[in-house]
Design a protein that fits this description.
Structural class: mainly beta
Strand order of the largest sheet: 1-2-4-5-6-7-8-9
Number of helices: 0
Low-confidence stretches: none
Shape: elongated
Order of helices and strands: EEEEEEEEE
Radius of gyration: 16 Å
Number of strands: 9
Distance between the termini: 18 Å
Length: 136
């Protein structure tokens, strides 16, 4: 099955990293809350990112996000692992995959992958999510 919708960032906290020396790449972390609408309905997610800044404006990230709410009318919670990159114009490209075994309630057995592209300055941005739901 496939579903779509929008992600709206609610909160982004990225503390200044400890001194890492030199002017090269640096690591950072961010705690994020998003709201998903559409096929995935999750009012407040919990997301943690580790970010590698290659330059002041470009880099890559990986993270885990817990989504609690509904997927196409089915209640439950699941976790996605996210990997992506961001360009010097602020565009973020991300793919995500359901962490095996993380689905609860009516989402038990959920498997799936998705993508989103967020352009700098957008209030919300579209996602696509393809999934299977094994009934155990």
């Amino acid at each position: 099955m496939q579903t779509t919708g929008h992600i709206t960032p609610v909160k982004w906290e990225e503390p200044a990293p400890a001194e890492q020396g030199g002017s090269g790449p640096r690591l950072a972390r961010a705690s994020v809350i998003n709201a998903f609408s559409g096929g995935i309905e999750a009012v407040e997610t919990a997301c943690e990112y580790v970010i590698a800044y290659v330059t002041a404006k470009t880099g890559t990230f990986t993270g885990m996000e817990v989504l609690s709410g509904r997927l196409d009318g089915r209640d439950g919670t699941f976790v996605v692992e996210e990997r992506g990159r961001f360009d010097d114009d602020g565009t973020v490209h991300c793919t995500f995959e359901v962490v095996p075994g993380s689905g609860t309630a009516a989402l038990t057995g959920l498997r799936g992958t998705g993508t989103f592209t967020a352009r700098h300055g957008e209030r919300s941005f579209p996602y696509t999510f393809s999934y299977d739901l094994d009934r155990l």
